[in-house]
Amino acid sequence: MTPWIVTNLWLIPAVPLAASLIILLLANSRGRMARALAITGQVVALTFAIVAFLRTLAEPGYRASHNFTWFTFGAHTLRLGWVLDPLTAAMLLMITFVGLWIFVFSIGYMAGDRNFTRFFAYLSFFSAAMLGVVIANSLLLLFVCWELVGLASYLLIGFWIHKPSAAAAAKKAFITTRIGDIALFLGILWLYRSSGTLLFYDEGNGCLEATGLLALGTSATFVALLIFGGAAGKSGQFPLHVWLPDAMEGPTPVSALIHAATMVAAGVFLVARVYPLFSLGAVDGVTPSLTVVVWIGVITALMASLIAVAQFDIKRILAYSTVSQLGLMMVSLGVGGVAAGIMHLLAHGFFKALLFLGSGSVIHSCHHEQDIRKMGGLRHLMPVTFLTYAIGMMTLSGVPFFFSGAWTKEEILHATAHWSRSSVPSYLMMAGVVLTALYMTRQMIFVFFGTRREASELATGQVRPIRHRTDSLRRTGGHAQESPRVMTVPLIVLAVCTTVLSVVLTPAWPWLHDYLNGEPAHFQIGQLIQPMLFVSLALVAAGVWLGILLYRNAGGTDPLAQTQPILFRFLENKMWLDELYAKTVLSWSTMFSRASDWMDRYIWDGLVRAIGAAGHFFGIVTTNFDERAINAGVDESATGTRGLGRFMSAGHSGQIQTYLGAVAVGMLALLILYAWLA
Amino acid sequence: MTPTLQTFLIVSAALFSIGLLAALSRQHAIFVLIGIEMMLAAANLNFIAFWRFGSQPQSPTGVMVAIFSIAIAAAEAAVGLALVIAVYRHYRTTNVTKLDQLKG
């Protein structure tokens, strides 16, 4: 007897989807109704998510699924379904809760926008698709919602349609994730072929359960790697990370929702969801597919945090930070710390959304200025934003005790340290922690401390502006001030949540860890102080201290740019990876397109035109034959007849005596004939 | 010399030819009729010649044919003259070369 909420889990994505469809039918002027519908949809989804969460508290390791047949073809049936387990419930809560506050923030941020209604339609649609990904029990349903999430991301990144850079970024995001999606689709096909089912949990017959895994055998590694390809695309792992920084062209709430909290989390979520495939046949917790996951994650994490040190756009720093954190999560999953990785995912959802919304608040009040070299001294002008941003920054850097980010990072470092394959990831992730603290400190100093730098710095011609829209210039008379309450309240709520979340993350009461692992919760105050705690404390302190040292008197320019120009330029240009891709993959793709176009234009079109020409030629031949041969023949015969007639009528002279003479000649001829014959 | 059959036939043929010539070459319609009469006369002479030098000279067969022929010639001459008069009434000419209405 499945509980009501499990059977009706589909309501959670369905309500925002319904809200989105209704909003799409509204006229552009009905902004109030649009935002009311969107927020209502999200609140209803949140309510159901809470109900689902409470249901999972019934027993440790709760898992219930509801499957049904979609259609049958021949001897096969295609079944879909949804599953409710701790992973699902936690993700549902995070997505609906964070999403709700981002919706509220958007009311303030997008207030002057002409396409306000469309924005909320797309936001609701995205929310529905993401919730669908999370509840899916069938890989097919997950893939469908996965693609819808990609579509929503495309629509939202390219929301400002008058900006060609936004359109290009949206296209880049979609195509790059599409490459990953091809791998994912191949993995799904292979899985279906090997195990005969796409359901995860199906009373023992699912592909993640005993019989399914047995049927897969050795192909589990390849299937897992293909699925990881899809996850790498969506979660911005190297080499498919290039779309995430460009995706900052979208409005900041979009960046907060999609590229911090939820969509990019989908990849990590997918790996966690199909973890049994990855860990099949693990020797000491190590399998080939998991090793690949670890190394890709390590490369991503380190590379992104290095690039973040050299960026000047406030959102790009956060974007690269997201890429780096996602790499860290993948590393955690790879070394076997599944619960740790998911915990970091959930915490990251909160604090990264907080950071993005905070940066949105800053951008909004600086009249859509995004260059940190043109900010500064905002901590007095925007106290609430500063405070909440500081909380977010400390959480991300991993300042311990009060902030959730520290506990999750500590767990991950703990897991990497105990990886039997190699200890290199452990040291590299520690370096990552230092770098994270460093670039976040840098960002804080540039944006909030120091003196206020306005656009007058532009006049020197040294900095390249990153401007967007200036419609709020008139309102504040050109000075930055604190954002309206509709924007600061979400910041406060999220800041409080990140702090409160740390309570359930401490090693003393690892409630979330046990919940995700399906174990009963336990409480041990002695576990609060761990050796790794001191290590992470030291690393964070080192990073922050280094940051303060380097950037304290920076003013408007970056000191690293002066001292290490080559390295700085290398990092500032994102290690020239985009250019590398443009030279190689894109140029091959362009060549192939040109070749196809040539084929189409000259070969296929030529074939069609040749057939047309043959028909035309046949027509000409027939016409000429008809005109010159047949008609001419007829004309000739007519002319001949006429000539004969003319000739004959010439004999009719009308002269009587001529006729008489003819009779006489004829008679003479007859006589001669008669005489000759006789 | 005594006239033989050939003599009469030569005369008749000559007379016929002259008549034909007249019919074919004279422009006046009456002269054409005269030519026709001459041809008829030649034919009569032919009949009489063959009767006289033929198998039964005593039966009046040849003479009868000749008389018939003359009667017919007379009737035909009357008709011809009537035609000429009719033509003259309409076209005001007796020149046969000018009667070319049937020219095609």
Question: Your description of this structure?
Answer:
The complex is a heterodimer of chains A (678) and B (104). In chain A, strand 1 (64-73) and strand 2 (76-84) form a beta hairpin. Chain A has helices at 4-7, 11-25, 31-56, 86-109, 116-135, 139-157, 164-195, 210-216, 219-234, 243-246, 252-261, 263-273, 275-278, 288-308, 314-334, 338-365, 378-381, 383-397, 404-417, 424-448, 473-476, 485-501, 511-517, 531-551, 559-563, 565-572, 577-650, 656-677, and strands at 64-73, 76-84. Chain A is elongated and about 160 Å long. Chain A contains 28 helices and two strands. By secondary structure, chain A is mostly helical. Chain A has a two-stranded antiparallel sheet with strand order 1-2. Chain B has one domain (5-98): Orthogonal Bundle (Helix Hairpins), CATH 1.10.287.3510. Helix content of chain B is 73%, strand content 0%. Chain B is elongated. The relative contact order of chain B is 0.14. The A-B interface holds A 649, 652-657, 660-661, 664 and B 20, 23-25, 32, 96-97, 99-104.
Number of strands of chain A: 2
Question: Radius of gyration of chain A over alpha carbons?
Answer: 38 Å
Order of SSEs of chain B: HHH
| Spatial order of strands in the largest sheet of chain A | 1-2
Form type of chain B: elongated
Instruction: Give the structural class of chain A.
Output: mainly alpha
The total of beta strands of chain B comes to 0
Tell me the number of helical segments of chain A per DSSP (H or I, 4 or more residues long): 28
For the largest beta-sheet of chain B, the strand count, sense and barrel status come to: none
- Tell me, rounded to a whole number, the average pLDDT of chain B: 92
Helix content of chain A: over 70%
Task: Quickly name the level 1 CATH class of chain B.
Answer: Mainly Alpha
Radius of gyration of chain B: 17 Å
Sum up the overall morphology of chain A in one term.
Answer: elongated
Strand proportion of chain A:
under 5%
Q: Give the SSE string of chain A.
A: HHHEEHHHHHHHHHHHHHHHHHHHHHHHHH
Unreliable residue runs of chain B = none
CATH architectural label of chain B: Orthogonal Bundle
State the assembly state of the protein chains: heterodimer
Number of domains of chain B: 1
Strand content of chain B: under 5%
